[in-house]
Amino acid sequence: MSTPSGAVWGRAEQQDFRSRVRGCLLGGAMGDALGAGTASLTLDEIRAAHGAGAVADFVPAFGRRGAVTAATQLTMFTVDGLIRAQVRRDTGAWHPPTDVHRAHLRWAATQYDWGPDLRRKDNGWLAQEEWLYVRRDPARSCLSGLGDEIMGTLERPKNPAARDAGALVRSAPFGLLVGWEPQLVCRLAVECATQTHGHPAAYLSAGAFAVLVHALARGETLDAAVQRALAVLTPYPGHEPVTDALQGALGAVRQGIPGPARIAALGAGRTAEEILAVAVYCALVAEDIRHGLRLAVNHDGSSGASGALCGALLGAFHGETALPPAWLAELEGRPTLLELADDFAMEMTQGPALHSPAITASGWLARYPRG
Question: Does the chain have fewer CB atoms within 10 Å around its N or its C terminus?
């Protein structure tokens, strides 16, 4: 991969970018948490459990309200890997897919009691967060794909039949590389998705989602973001299920009042491309973030995954101040997510002041080691 060109950031641009990064990561976690308690339920089962209005607020999952799943855990480690990739550029060993893969292996180590205890090593700050050492319904494809240190590639992907959303839901951070061209963002997301998901619909959904976030973080409209994703995806072999799903989401906007029936028409909400279509549709028709997320989690499909995607899209579009404060107050891991978001924004806008051939900020390198 070629190195993307740098950018000069003004103060207002830095503030806007940080707001969108915070919005994306917190919004994604919020949608994940909203759907966590109903992820395996049909709409009828959701209504039976929570009333005719279905889920309108956090419901208990994993012993508390506002709990997040493996989707948020993996997203956080994706951010960690991208920051480390930028830090390692000074060494001449710049290959983001490798750094993201190493980050995901660190996540995998948190999922097993018998695995290496990263808390006892000089391994950066994120691995020291005790609350991450719990298993929250990770996709089997993620666990098996990261079960050894061999990195899947586009030529030799892991789990060639895996079509679930396990790679898709961790791919928002690639879109926050706003200094990159969308084609490069898509390529990186695709390459990193193949480390656990080898079905084209799964890894191309991840690429499309990254391009959507990228366009929104750059200030484009949701409709324009979908058009850009369609254009970027078309050259890839096997893109048709994903581009058809995105076209279906666009078409559904013009078909009447938003609701479960419109969502059901987009598919069962179980494969990566169907979940992406649901999230995009809900983001397109959302009156605000609360409305969009409620739509995204009340259907027969994977509520947590579609909620996480929709929240990331709307958060990147509107910024952190549009997020519902009452949900933020209960969101598990909010301090960690904020710290990680601000570190990402600082690295991407002010990286040369933290590390360069002439400058070494020891505190920063302790947080994000080059090794």
Answer: C
